[in-house]
Each structure stands twice: as structure tokens, then as C-alpha cells.
Amino acid sequence: MHIQLELPMPPSVNHYWGVRGKQRFLGKRGKEFRVAVSEACLDAGVQPLDGRLSVHIALFPANRIRFDVDNRIKSLLDALEHAGCYHDDEQIDELHVIRQGVKPGGLCTVLILPVTD
Asked: What local confidence, expressed as pLDDT, does residue 57 receive?
């Protein structure tokens, strides 16, 4: 069993979380992204995967503006967990991320596979 999704480009962690004093909370863009991921998972009939996992991510930015891929990954993994793709991101043993070419609107593709011995 595996999960394959096409999602919007994840927001940077700087836009996913908001901070007010010492309090950290899910920001507006974070909430919008979580909803989009949850809807995509619902449409795909996603059931949570058990065991150790391998995650393959391709990021297709909306434009040529520079960005750090690692700033996008935490928000994506958090949203995937929240949407029920897996129980805890601690299950992830392998993480493969690649930056791809520009796509209008931006998007990311995700493939989650069980790790086989």
C-alpha cells in the first residue's frame, strides 16, 4: 500500500506558524495549507500507513524566486500527519526531496511508501 498525492506548494515554516510573544500557533497560510492537504487526502481515500516509511517529495515552485527546500518540508510533513497519511512523522526513515522546474501556481508531489526489509 502507498499514498500518492499532488498538493499545493507548501508554505515556508516562517508562514506556516505564527508567533505572538512566546506563543506559537498555526498561521493563516498554515491553516489554508492544512485544509488543502486534508481535502486532497480525503479525495484520494487515504488511510494511515503503519510502520516505517519512505517519503519522496518533488517541489515545483510557482516562479523563479529563491527558496530553501528544507523550509517547506516541515510544514508539508506536519500537514500530511494531520491529514492522516501516517500516525507520527517519527515513522519516516527515508526522506527524498527534489526541486523541479517552475509550474504556474506551484505544486508538490508526494509519494509515501512502506520501507521494506
From this structure: 98
State pTM to two decimals: 0.92
Distance from first CA to last CA of the chain, Å, rounded? 15
pLDDT tens figures, 2-55:
999 999 999 988 777 888 888 888 889 999 999 999 999 999 999 999 999 999
| CA distance readout (Å), 26 to 32, 95, 103 | 10, 24, 27
Question: Cα separation of 113 and 105, whole Å?
Answer: 27
Spatial contact of 59 and 45, defined as CB atoms under 8 Å apart: no
3-state secondary structure of 65: coil
